[in-house]
Amino acid sequence: MSGKYIENPAWVGQLMRTEKPKLVLYAFAEAYVKTASRNVPVHTGATQEDFDSNKILKKSSHGFPLMEVNFRGNDYPHIWHIIEYGSVNNPAYAPLRKGAEGVGLSWQGA
Amino acid sequence: MIPSCEQVLSYFLRNHASITPLVSDHVYTTTPKSPTEKMPYLLVTRIGGSPVTSVPLFIDQAVIQFDCYGGNKFASETLAHTAREVLTTDFPGFQTGSGSDAVITAVDIGAMFYLPDQALEPPKPRYLFDATITLHPAY
Predict the structure, then answer these.
(1) A77 pLDDT more than 80
(2) Residue B78's closest CA among B30, B133, B1, B18?
(3) CB A82 within 8 A of CB A92
(4) What Rg do the C-alpha atoms of chain A give, in angstroms?
(5) Chain A contact for B137 (CB, 8 A cutoff)
């Protein structure tokens, strides 16, 4: 007996509308946020006095970490990329990439 | 002992015939003291990675970030493309001469993008890319 397998292109969407995958996704997201938090240079960063450490990591709508850093009293508002990728004055702390790696996720983007 | 991926990599790139015309021997593992004077240069930094197994502690997977400062945007991109190419074609295999011999078993190139270094005034063109290097000691 033989048969032809036809993949339902909507299976991911259908699956994600159920509860279990969402729980798994949120568990991953929670672990990701915790691992990423450990790599944010709150205590050691050269710029630690210049930003509000409580506002570095936020959660996206799916619960995964987003990084947003605002300098206080400065018209140069976004320095998240300096923390993630480094500069001549700062090493690449890479909290998002280290966090992804720490929970077994693969970093695919920039 | 697992060799230092940064040490092996920086030695390899510093002595590669395709890289030296672009940056001379300016391949570093930490930012040089006078970065503007040292441009063009290539910065190699380990930002993560873990061994494949803890026992035996033999094969390591290092996630490396490459900061390509070429002096201008096009030169930076050329440096990044060249580095990616030599990493995939010539780096795998036995690497010696850096002080810690290593066998490179795999190179997986990650995302590449343009991100000028805004810590410098004026901002300096820089291309970034990641690579995951799998290596073990040379025995």
Answers:
(1) no
(2) B18
(3) no
(4) 19
(5) no
